[in-house]
Amino acid sequence: MAKSTPIKHIVDIKTGEVTGEIRQGDRIIRKESVKHFYKTIDIPKNLNYVKWNRDTMSELRKEKLSANQWQIVATLAEYFRYESGLISYSNGKPLKVEDISKLSDISRSACFKDMVILIDKKIIAKTKVGHDIKFYINPFIFAIGKKMSNSLYIMFEDTKWFDLYRARLIGEFPPVNDLPDTFSP
Predict the structure, then answer these.
(1) Whole-prediction pTM
(2) 40: pLDDT confidence band, cut at 50, 70 and 90?
(3) Closest by alpha carbon to 138, among 165, 111, 102, 113?
(4) Does domain 51-183 bear CATH number 1.10.10.10?
């Protein structure tokens, strides 16, 4: 394999002598970086993590959610799907209020009332087609991975949570009409 052309020179600052070259793709590893590397432990990649947008944390606290509502949010964060935000079992079957009630260990009537509040606060959304009801988590608060579906983006783009998210990323969002089926901001 042929060597690439040098793109930078390494110069001794005391003598001004060129002591080396940096080529395309080369990396500089500093002593401090190596020391830091040996002081850290990699998090296993086979664990499932949820991302919580830090810019929304203080705003979510201001919502004054009840203990039951926080319990529901924690449960929903465990059950939403990558890209679609659908709150469902791992087999894709959407969770109903009864399921959320059982998983959250909250009475069905209390869960139903609290779900309405979470919907009003735009933390989750509810869709209904015929008798089919589905719940979705707001991707501008919680996410998995780097992508969200166009539908999920549109579902929550008129919320204060989107505004907080967008304020951090001004200028990085394409017009909605130009979005592909999945979008990676």
Answers:
(1) 0.70
(2) confident
(3) 165
(4) yes
